[in-house]
Amino acid sequence: MSVTAQSVWDNCLSFIKDNIQPQAYKTWFEPIKPVKLTNKALSIQVPSKFFYEWLEEHYVKLLKVALVKELGNTARLVYIIKMENTYGNKKPFTEKIPSANRSGVRAQEIDVPIKNKSPELKNPFIIPGIRNVKIESQLNPNYNFDNFLEGDSNRLARSAGMAVANKPGGTSFNPLLIFGGVGLGKTHIAHAIGVDIKDKYPEKMVLYISAEKFTQQYIESVKKNTRNDFIHFYQLIDVLIIDDVQFFSGKSGTQDVFFHIFNHLHQNGKQVILTSDKAPVDMQDIEQRLLSRFKWGLSAELQTPDFETRVSIVKNKLYRDGVEMPNDIVEYVAKHIKSNVRELEGAIISLIAQSSFNKKEVTIELAKQVVEKFVKNTKREVSIDYIQKVVSDYFQMDVSTLQSKTRKRHIVQARQLAMFFAKKFTKASLASIGSQIGKRDHATVLHACKTVDNLSSTDKQFRKYVEDLTKKLSL
Ligand code: ADP
Ligand code: MG
């Protein structure tokens, strides 16, 4: 009997069926159609991008085992996403296979080599002097401007990004620094700029890299005595995108090397794009000369999106995934998840998944349950005991020292911080906070809160304490 896509897939299915819940099998595997088999690559058709992501996230191991069993070690899986109404962009997921256009239905193909999932920078160091080298840009085409929804919260950053993409190195936005809180789209915009530049100027060398990876590469190059090659490599790039530069904090070697690379690129009219979770003024332990460079160009802040923007982000995501959901549910979710777009998307995905697992309609009830989980996770109530513990740990003292009657300055400060956070993070009254933190009265607590407020606006070091502790307490 000859081996066909159908026969291979049938065998995979019978193996998969034995290894997962019947409901999950029905939901995630029955809708898949085997399409073709070329060499050792099996193409399967899935109904949406969401579907593909779900398979990759939850069943990639199982799929791998099944496929290797059938086709051997060189087996590969190619996803074909076929859906009605695809939003916006013309780009397929990978550059490999262009999307086919059949009567308004768009197919996207994703070629997933079954072994290494995230391709590393293939050629981190290239011998200097060769101008025509190709590098892997490390860009994610799923992050583009078309699917980055505009709102008041991101208008400046988005349009500055587009301006830079139109004329890399040719605007006054150099460097372009995008900053803002977690999950607000910094990484998305950073990729979108790179993707757009590659689209318009295919010959330009664009590189996206996280500050963390840049740092690792640098350390590695020092170890291997190839620091110069490292610098030369980065000096060849036309558009350098570094994500999360706050990671450079306190790393003086990396800052130094980046400073030199930056100057070289800037002098040669090359574009630099940076993202950070803080505004330059608030960055700690970054050298002044580097901070002043950051300010040469434009710093654009991403703020939390307003309700309308959140609704459009959700609707757009549903549309792209080919999923329908009643308006009141979309609005309910957008109303309650406010501060982080990643969480907003997470809630929607979890909602879709739950409803398709249980074959239930998405109801307001279900939405409430899902939203509650997300909101609870972010707003866990902390106790006064816990606050005292965290503050004393931070200053490396015992809780009893923190509560003691001593007037030593650093202990008084720690105590005042504990009171301040107790006021901020709990619903306890001033009197009750005082009695739990070393038996003080309510006036002492009030005074503590005022002192902390004052000090954090006048004293940089003190502000750092407040920020660090806020982070620790909000985890
Ligand atoms: P950050 O890097 O700031 O932590 P990300 O860029 O990773 O945030 O964004 C988190 C998620 O939210 C991503 O999936 C991104 O696509 C999405 N997102 C953020 N802002 C928008 C927007 N304006 N429109 C569409 N998607 C957005
Ligand atoms: Mg990011």
TrEMBL record:
InterPro entries found in the cross-reference section: AAA+_ATPase (IPR003593), Chromosome_initiator_DnaA (IPR001957), Chromosome_initiator_DnaA-like (IPR020591), Chromosome_initiator_DnaA_CS (IPR018312), DnaA_C (IPR013159), DnaA_dom (IPR013317), DnaA_N_dom (IPR024633), DnaA_N_sf (IPR038454)
CDD domains for this protein: AAA, Bac_DnaA_C
Instruction: Please list the residue ranges annotated as the AAA+ ATPase domain.
Output: 172-308
Positions of the UniProt region annotated as Domain IV, binds dsDNA: 356-475
Q: Locate the region Domain I, interacts with DnaA modulators.
A: 1-86
Q: What keywords sit in the KW lines?
A: ATP-binding, Cytoplasm, DNA replication, DNA-binding, Lipid-binding, Nucleotide-binding
* Compartment list: Cytoplasm
PROSITE patterns, per the entry: DNAA
This protein's record includes keyword Transport: no
Task: Give the main location.
Answer: cytoplasm
**Chromosomal replication initiator DnaA C-terminal domain segment(s):** 383-452
- Gene3D superfamilies cross-referenced by the UniProt entry: 1.10.1750.10, 1.10.8.60, 3.30.300.180, P-loop containing nucleotide triphosphate hydrolases
Q: Where does ATP bind?
A: 183, 185-187
Domain comment quoted from the record = Domain I is involved in oligomerization and binding regulators, domain II is flexibile and of varying length in different bacteria, domain III forms the AAA+ region, while domain IV binds dsDNA.
Family designation: Belongs to the DnaA family.
Subunit field text: Oligomerizes as a right-handed, spiral filament on DNA at oriC.
Function description = Plays an essential role in the initiation and regulation of chromosomal replication. ATP-DnaA binds to the origin of replication (oriC) to initiate formation of the DNA replication initiation complex once per cell cycle. Binds the DnaA box (a 9 base pair repeat at the origin) and separates the double-stranded (ds)DNA. Forms a right-handed helical filament on oriC DNA; dsDNA binds to the exterior of the filament while single-stranded (ss)DNA is stabiized in the filament's interior.
PANTHER family documented for this protein: CHROMOSOMAL REPLICATION INITIATOR PROTEIN DNAA
Q: How is this protein named in the record?
A: Chromosomal replication initiator protein DnaA
